[in-house]
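Quick one:
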Amino acid sequence: MKISIDATRLQTELDTLATFTHVEPATNGTAVTRIVFSDDDLKARAWLKGLAIAEGFTIREDAVGNTFIRWEGTEPDLPAVATGSHIDAIPHAGMYDGTVGVLGGLEAMRALKQSGVRRRRSLELVLLTSEEPTRFGIGCLGSRLLSGTLDPARADGLRDLTGDEEATLAKVREAAGFAGPLEAVRLPEGHYHAWIELHIEQGPLLEREDVPLGIVTSIAAPAGYRFIIHGFGGHAGALLMPDRKDALCAAAELILSIEKHALATGAIDTVATVGTCEVHPGAVNSVPSRVVLQVDLRDTDPVRREGVIEAVRHDCEQLRTRRGVTITEELVNADAPADSSPHIVEVLETICKENKTPCKKMVSRAYHDSLFIARIAPIAMLFIPCRLGVSHRPNEFAKIEDIARGTQVLAEALARLALE
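Output:
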């Protein structure tokens, strides 16, 4: 039985999805900004649902906007086999992050339907809400709620960081047409028989080693922190240097402390980033009195990750004394790593061997919705190369032959797992 992926259709749909954006065209690549529940996001969702309906698939949406596109199996009461990803994009991002997994998943299901493949289990493509933290300050919002790893009341109270400061997720999702209690979003453990997410690598290894496909064996554990430094501000000319308690100078030392202790582990899987720095009052002629840093710390080993933040806390104590500032730490999230299912990994490896497709087992240092789906189902991920490992930028790029190859392996894996 031949399963044929329509690469031309897949590229056309990726190009079309990239038009749902309001952003200045990039000189290098395709710039996409698609914030969750924005007009662009809602139009993109409607377009995707139209494609699914045209294929005869059924659609269900939950209270946070997770969208389930289903092709019934002969035994629909069995736990389904699923795939999926996201379509929201951070400001001035690229056109492949997440979208390859959604449109590749749709193409895989279409190809299986057109081939007449027999299956016991239903197949389900899931469009997950707000994988990016842009609007509500926390990533993987939809999959966290699906897996029960985010309290529904806390989620509904999350503030909109992109517009009205008084707006919350509860108000924004309802305005977007997604009503109902978030408690109903959670799926029980074992809801899916298997889950596979297709994604660009967002790193350079596959391209560098000339390997066309990566099979993810584990996903690193992310943690997010907010550090608030209070000093003493004043006029840049009048406040004498010996009298200063410059919050930004203290923040600079703290940033370097985070970098130093991440490097000190000696592990390539330890990564730390200070991604935002808010300075108050933010005037060139005013000594900064308050700085807010947001920190992203990831590791495949949560104990090692905790060792980094403990070392940073020790440096904070010294900074408080030496610079006369106050430093407050807030935990945004601290998640456990996830391991892929050995069985699904074996299925993917077998298909690659049969297709004479070289593959590489690898760790995902970026985290994805699959990290949280792993709480309720056996998971694995397929990575395809992306040029220079570039992602979250307009020049993010993946070749259609690589996307189609990944979609082919995904389709064959879904077919095999649906017969189990």
